[in-house]
C-alpha cells in the first residue's frame, strides 16, 4: 500500500442499567470507530462519539465528513494530515469526526515513536490519573449504597447526577454523612434549571462541602450570572459544544471549571491548548468521558494524563463499567480510584480486537 486507508464502522453500546440524569434516561449509545492504516503497516484508531441523544443527526454528519476525506487518504498519510487542518468541521457531527481522525493520526505518530500517546503529547505526562465515580439519580438509600461502594473501591471523588430540587439536598447530605468530609463531591444537574432555582440549590448544598456544581443552567450567559452569586464553584459542560463556545466561556468568566470532552472540542491539540490557557487563568480543566467506546475513553485518558496543572485532580473517565463491552474490547476499570494508561505505544489498544464485532447503522 503506497498511500493510507481511512475506514470506519458504526457501533452501538448498551448500558448495563439505565443511567438516570436530570436530562433523561440513557439506555444505548451509538458512535463510529475510525481507523487509519498507513503505508508502513501501522493502524491508528479514533472514536466518533457526539453528545448522547444527538446521534440520529450527528452520526450521518460525521460519516459524510469522513467520506469526503477517504480519497485524500489514498494520496498518503501526509495528505490526510494536511487535509485535517484545512477541511472545516462546523457541525457537531463533523467536529466529533475530526477529533476521531486526529486521534487516529496521533495514535500512528506515537506508535511510530514507540511511546504511549500521552508521553508523545507531553514528555512530562503521567502514567495514571485519578478519576471520579459516577452515580446516577436514584433514591437516597441506593445513592448512599453506591457512594459507599465507590469509596471502598478507592475513589476519592464522587460525581452525583442531581435534579435541582429541594428534595435532592437531603440526598446529597446523606452521601456526605456516609462518606465523610475528605471525599470530594461533584454535582451534575445537566442544564435542568433556571438561575433562581440553581442559586437556591447552590446555597442549600454549599455547607456540604461541594467541589463544584456542574451545568445547573442552560446557557453561558446564565452560568456567568449564576457564578457571580453562587457560593459553590460552577463547571461548564453542555454549553461547551465547540471552539466558539469555549472562547465565549473564557471571555464571560462563566465557570470555575471547564469540563472538556474531546468529541465536542474536535481536536486533541486544541483541547491541550485550551487547558494551558485555562490553567493560566486559574480555571481548572476536567476531562470527561462522553460515554463512548473503549477507543474514545482511552484517548480521553491519554489527554488527561498529558494535561498541565494539578496531577491529582480527578477526571470523569470511570465510565467503562456502565456499558456492555463492544465486541471483544477490554473494559478499563479503575484500580484504587485511578485509571492506568494501557501498556504499549500509541493508544495501547489491540487494533484487531477493537475493530472486531458487528456493525450498527
The number of helices is 13
Q: Regarding CATH, which class of the largest domain? A: Alpha Beta
Shape by Cα distribution: globular
**Which structural class fits the helix and strand makeup?**
alpha/beta
List the uncertain runs: none
Write down the secondary-structure element order: EEEHHHHEEHEHEHEHEHEHHEHEH
Query: Which CATH architecture of the largest domain would you pick?
Result: Alpha-Beta Barrel
CATH superfamily heading of the largest domain: Enolase-like C-terminal domain
Helix content: 40-55%
Query: What portion of residues belong to β-strands?
Result: 15-25%
User: Which whole number gives the mean pLDDT?
Assistant: 93
Backbone CA Rg: 20 Å
CATH topology of the largest domain: TIM Barrel
Distance between the termini: 28 Å
What kind of sheet is the major sheet? 7 strands, parallel
Key traits:
alpha/beta, three-stranded antiparallel β-sheet, globular, Enolase-like, domain 1, TIM Barrel, 13 helices, seven-stranded parallel β-sheet, 361 residues, single chain, 2 domains
Amino acid at each position: 500500500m503506497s498511500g493510507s486507508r481511512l475506514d470506519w464502522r458504526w457501533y452501538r453500546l448498551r448500558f448495563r442499567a439505565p443511567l438516570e440524569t436530570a436530562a433523561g434516561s440513557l439506555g444505548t449509545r451509538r458512535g463510529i470507530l475510525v481507523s487509519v492504516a498507513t503505508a508502513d503497516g501501522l493502524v491508528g484508531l479514533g472514536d466518533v462519539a457526539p453528545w448522547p441523544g444527538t446521534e440520529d443527526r450527528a452520526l450521518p454528519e460525521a460519516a459524510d465528513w469522513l467520506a469526503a476525506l477517504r480519497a485524500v487518504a489514498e494520496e498518503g498519510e501526509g495528505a490526510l494530515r494536511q487535509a485535517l487542518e484545512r477541511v472545516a468541521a462546523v457541525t457537531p457531527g463533523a467536529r466529533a469526526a475530526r477529533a476521531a481522525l486526529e486521534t487516529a493520526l496521533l495514535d500512528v505518530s506515537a506508535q511510530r515513536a514507540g511511546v504511549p500517546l500521552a508521553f508523545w503529547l507531553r514528555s512530562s505526562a503521567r502514567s495514571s490519573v485519578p478519576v471520579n465515580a459516577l452515580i446516577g439519580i436514584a433514591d437516597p438509600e441506593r445513592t448512599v449504597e453506591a457512594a459507599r461502594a465507590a469509596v471502598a473501591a478507592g475513589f476519592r471523588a464522587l460525581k452525583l447526577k442531581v435534579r435541582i430540587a429541594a428534595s435532592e439536598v437531603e440526598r446529597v447530605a446523606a452521601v456526605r454523612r456516609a462518606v465523610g468530609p475528605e471525599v470530594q463531591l461533584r454535582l451534575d444537574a445537566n442544564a435542568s434549571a433556571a438561575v433562581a432555582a440553581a442559586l437556591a440549590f447552590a446555597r442549600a448544598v454549599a455547607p456540604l462541602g461541594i467541589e463544584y456544581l456542574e451545568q445547573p443552567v442552560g446557557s453561558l450567559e446564565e452560568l456567568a450570572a449564576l457564578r457571580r452569586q453562587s457560593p459553590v464553584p460552577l463547571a461548564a459542560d453542555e454549553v461547551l459544544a465547540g471552539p466558539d463556545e469555549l472562547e465565549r466561556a473564557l471571555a464571560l468568566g462563566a465557570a470555575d471549571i471547564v469540563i472538556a470532552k474531546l468529541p465536542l472540542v474536535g481536536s486533541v491539540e486544541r483541547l491541550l491548548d485550551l487547558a494551558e490557557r485555562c490553567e493560566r487563568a486559574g480555571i481548572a480543566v476536567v476531562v470527561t468521558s462522553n460515554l463512548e467506546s473503549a477507543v474514545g475513553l482511552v484517548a480521553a485518558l491519554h489527554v488527561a494524563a498529558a494535561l498541565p496543572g494539578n496531577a491529582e485532580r480527578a477526571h470523569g473517565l470511570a465510565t467503562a463499567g456502565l456499558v456492555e463491552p463492544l465486541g471483544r474490547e477490554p473494559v478499563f476499570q479503575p484500580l484504587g480510584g485511578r485509571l492506568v494508561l494501557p501498556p504499549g505505544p500509541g493508544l495501547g489498544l489491540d487494533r484487531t480486537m477493537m475493530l472486531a464485532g458487528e456493525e450498527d447503522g
